[in-house]
Amino acid sequence: MSKEGRPDVPELEILSVIGFYGSVYAGLKVHPDREHFIYPLGNTVIVEHITSHRQYFLTGHTNDVSCIAVSNSGKYLASGQITHMGFKADVIIWDYSNKELYCRLTLHKVKVQSLAFSPKDTFLVSLGGQDDGSIVVWDVKSKEAVCGAPAAVKSAGTTYCVAYCNNDDFKFVSGGDGTIRVWTLDLKNRKIPAVDCNMGQLKRIVKCIEVAEDDSYFYCGTTSGDVLKMNIKNHILSFFGPEKDKFSMGVTSLALVKTGAILIGGGDGTVAICKGDKFKRMKSAKVKGASAITSLALRGNGHQFFVGAANSQVYLFNFAEFTHEILSTCHAAAVNDIVFPAESSELFATCSRNDIRIWNAGTGKELLRISVPNMTCHAIDFMRNGKCIVSAWDDNKLRAFFPESGKLMYMIEDAHNKEVTAIATTSDCKRIISGGGEGQVRVWEVSRNRQSLVEAMKEHKGAVSCIKVRKNDQECISASEDGTCIIWDLQRFVRNQVIFANTLFKCVCYHPDEHQVITSGTDRKIGYWETYNAAAIREVDGSMSGSINGMDMAPDGQCFVTGGDDKLIKVWNYKEGKVTSIGKGHSGFINRLRVCPQQKLIVSVSKDGAIICWKYPVC
Amino acid sequence: MSESIYNLIPREQVAPPKEKRYQSKFKSSVKDELKTNKSPNKTMGPAKVNLRSSGEFLTKHSKEPQLPEKTKFQFPDEETRKPGVPRQTEKPLMGLKSNKDFVQTNAVENIMSVPKKPAANFVDTPFGSTHPLEPSGLMPKYMKKKGYGETPQYLQKRKDETVRAQEEYNEYVREHYRRGAMKQLTEAERQTILDGLKKNWEEIHHQYQGLSVVTDTAPKKMRKERMEAEMKQLERDIELLEKHKAIYIGNY
Q1: Which alpha helices (H) appear in chain B, and where do they start and end?
Q2: CA-nearest residue of chain B to A347?
Q3: InterPro entries in the record, alphabetically (chain A) (predicted)?
Q4: Of the ranges A28-37, A201-210, B177-186, which one carries the lowest mean pLDDT score?
Q5: B66 assigned to some structural domain
């Protein structure tokens, strides 16, 4: 707020966040109080109550969170991040009880790979990424580094993970590409001498490490699909296995259960319980729809455990019966568009790479998923009668789907010469207006069985980013990245008016009475324009830092909402052109946002895959 | 049925109110019936039967089954049997007595009788199982029949008849010769006739081969048919002459 210079502006209330960064290894944790999840989403760390789903946001990182650690007592959380090449990546220790930043530790370059707390919360050990390659031990109390060392010998590859002993505050282990080391902290001399473990002829890349409860052994999951059992005392490999029937695509996560069994998550979505020195599979389940299992989080002693997959799905497993149910889903890639069906605030649809999903706005549960593998959907819209979902894809196709079964209704091949970037429907449900990357705006006459091109309007020179149609279906406005917005006559298919500005237009909105439009784009300015003669009425600074990507007008026309690269949602009074509320919560660039037709919700989607529902403020 | 996005909107599931417990509508009437006719003899009521008069009271053994009268046992051939041997005490009828000495006559009869011939059997196993010899086929039976190996009579008769007919015919021919009424063709004559016939046939055949292929007019057809008929006749004659060596020609 101080950055924006508006200390009096009230904040928007977050109703729910749909999002989880599944690709972070061991990113999903259960707090020792057994009642909260901890997981990363973009550059925030979210603490969520397991049953009531109340969320707390720990914000402070400047880029995506790459690792998370929870102290044994549960007093502290630690998270590391990625930054751009040449910058330092922070480790942040959070005070859990107050949910606030405890200290920021900056030493590592580019990426913090892994973190581990000592059993008595005295020390935090952090491992730098490939470009850093060092291990640093931090004193939690004094918030200072104790000592540091290169993570591996120069001949070895990257070190991927680090784990502390369960009883000894001065011993920890690390593992990576051809290196497994046991470290002993010499506090007096500020040194951490390391002993490389002897692996003989075995060559393995370790991705995850778990230390046994009595600190006698530690287990390493490898990309070859087996588990190594190492002796800590004599640094010798004691067993490895399974010899046959290895975990395909590697062992990506490990967890030790009190009974002596090992929970193993595989790269192909397998979760298994293994026992004994041969690592025999006692129980095994392939989680349907999950990609690599990146996190296995035990709740308490492990009667229940949570499984996080790389495609951002969270499952709840019952240990005894070994059954599972899906707990939450979210997009694993940038969400490109959000749309509400006409006159309904209970549902909304979002689109991303590979899929379109329909969500229940109240509960945040996924209702329907339409998958088109390896394709990215840029824009979606509902037909006004609700009988069809039309979508614009990067393989130059327009696809329409049935809204309940999710089956393909029809597909227009080569709808544009480049990818389709914008789409809109008319209120009579007979026409689709699409915009393409090459700058054409095309009008299609569609029915379930027949789709034909009515007219291609070739005025734009850059990609069309947004199309809005008037209520009477006689005019539409298209915003393009060539710096123009054009108002088209949809009966004669000619240009009525054109708006020029020195910007890449990202969004455009009609005022409900349709005499004025507001536009915005990368120049961070919100422009008010007359539709009759395209005359500029007013220009307002929409943001201090980033471009504005999403904008929507409230149905009553009193307010409009913007969001963009500054990761802030702003609610504006239309007449005064002033910000009335600000929503903070997004950790990635906001791509689009919408106000629901009943004006209860604002839903925004961002590049990090998060969907946030905000309560619409009282203007 | 067309799909609609609005069907996806989660609806509050209102549980239907629990229905009242089932109670039969006949409950009251069943209750009344149970009270009034306590034992209505199940379904049809008590059977309507006339009461017996007071005299026909129940007596002893009256409910036991009635068995038929006992009869004396008799053999089925009792009537056809001869009467029993007269007893010692019985007196002969009319005082008639025979002087035949049955003991004597029986003894004489037996002494004079020819002993019975043993049955003609054959034994085929070492354990002595016997079978009658006669039907076994081991004894010549048909060989010893009367007329065995002789020509049957009817064949003999037929043979005699043919011989007699031949003799009669020969006699007839000889008679004709004697009267000069018949002559036999010589071999040379027969040959010339045959050659002539063959030549005729060849001529007609030559002409026949020279006929036009198409027989379109009536005269052509008639001619062809005529030639065919002639050739057939000639063939028959040639065959007749070639078949028989001796040919006689009557003069009359």
Answers
A1: 27-36, 102-112, 153-179, 187-209, 218-243
A2: B9
A3: Beta-prop_EML_1st, Quinoprotein_ADH-like_sf, WD40/YVTN_repeat-like_dom_sf, WD40_repeat_CS, WD40_repeat_dom_sf, WD40_rpt, WD_repeat_EMAP
A4: B177-186
A5: no
Q: Domain range spanning residue A84?
A: 20-196
The CATH number of residue A140's host domain is 2.130.10.10
Whole-number average pLDDT of chain A? 90
Q: Write the DSSP symbol of residue B6.
A: G
Q: Is residue A29 part of a domain?
A: yes
Q: How many independent structural domains does chain A possess?
A: 2
Q: What was the pLDDT predicted at A126?
A: 94
Q: What is the pLDDT of residue B183?
A: 78
Distance from CA of A341 to the nearest CA of B (A): 8
CB-count burial class (<10 Å; 0-12, 13-18, 19+) for A368: buried
Per-residue pLDDT at A7 exceeds 80: no
CA distance B10 to chain A (A): 8
| Within-domain flag for A569 | yes
**pLDDT exceeds 70 at position A3:** no
CB of A126 closer than 8 Å to CB of A66: no
How many Å lie between the alpha carbon of B11 and the closest alpha carbon of chain A?
10
Predicted pLDDT at A604: 94
Give me the residue label for tokens 């004669």: A492
Which of A196, A222, A237 finishes a domain? Answer: A196
Smallest CA–CA distance, residue B13 to chain A, in Å, is 16
Q: How many domains does chain B have?
A: 1
Residue of A nearest to B1 (CA): A387
Cis peptide before A242 (omega within 30 of 0): yes
- Name the DSSP class of B14: P
pLDDT higher than 90, residue A392: yes
User: Chain A interface residues facing chain B, Cβ-Cβ under 8 Å?
Assistant: 341, 344, 346-347, 358, 360, 362-363, 367-368, 382, 385-387, 389, 402-405
Average pLDDT over every residue of A373-391: 92
pLDDT for the residue numbered B40: 61
Q: What pLDDT score was predicted for residue A619?
A: 65
Residues of B in contact with A363 (CB under 8 A): 10
Q: For residue B63, how many other CB atoms are within 10 A of its CB? A: 7
CB contact (8 A) between residue A344 and residue B9: yes
In a domain, B222, yes or no: yes
Question: Which chain B positions have a beta carbon within 8 Å of A385's beta carbon?
Answer: 4
Q: Print the domain residue range for B239.
A: 187-244
